[in-house]
Amino acid sequence: MVRAPCCEKKGLKKGPWTLEEDEILTSYINKHGHSNWRALPKDAGLLRCGKSCRLRWINYLRTDIKRGNFSNEEEQIIIKMHELLGNRWSAIAAKLPGRTDNEIKNMWHTHLKKRLLNTKNNQPHSNTKKRVSKQKIKISDSNANSNSMETTSSNCTFSSDFSSQGKNLDNSIICEDPEDSFVTMPQIDESFWSETITDDETNSMTISHELPIQEYPYNNSLENFQNPFDDDDGMGFWVDLLIRSEESTELPEF
DNA sequence: AATCCGGACAACCGCCGCCCA
DNA sequence: ATGGGCGGCGGTTGTCCGGAT
What are the E-state strand segments in chain A? Predict the structure, then answer.
């Protein structure tokens, strides 16, 4: 074997990335690409392991990352995809352009899982409101205090994500209820969560698991949700399921 | 004002499968 | 055919921050 040994951890830095490191990584990848993650940190002059660089790039620095709160449509797609695929975050992420598996995984564990749990316990809806957190982007470095940016107008929060090199990766507007910083969510029928799956549909699910993950045209709205799979190839089920459950484009209340 | 606590999310760890020598 | 490196993935942990007390 001629390859270098894996994971030489001596002297490698861990923990939050600094703005300077982000800049180095971004400019290196923009210039040379990332064909070899293991060699990259050494070539770029970073005291990080290749894995750490890869993670930082994929989850944070990539320019095509969509940042900001998940839309209701995105949340519902995650829920439905999770019903079908389980914890296959990367497969779910492949269906949500601009979202990373890590982001979706975090979203699931911090928000969606609890909602589903509450629903399945048949707990009454405590209220009809869902908190919307203000988007606040942090750039982790020694001067972190000065790196958060947030502006608020009367009833909307406009947040800009300034990542490395001052690049604006995403601008997002989070509208809030002007009275109490909550948004009111409509209620939908409990049957939303208990779709009956027929034998035919189950078969379709089984088949779909064996197919390569494909991207479907997701245009930020389920009204624009096109099913590229139809039923011929067995991928139609979950798409149909999503569409059928989307009479309302809002999330249920808990 | 200080402290505590829980939520959110970035980052790390370990495993697995693929690919290459 | 085999063994090891590498990338990718999912689970878990660490850290920060805001709200509550």
Answer: 129-131, 151-152, 156-162, 168-175, 182-184
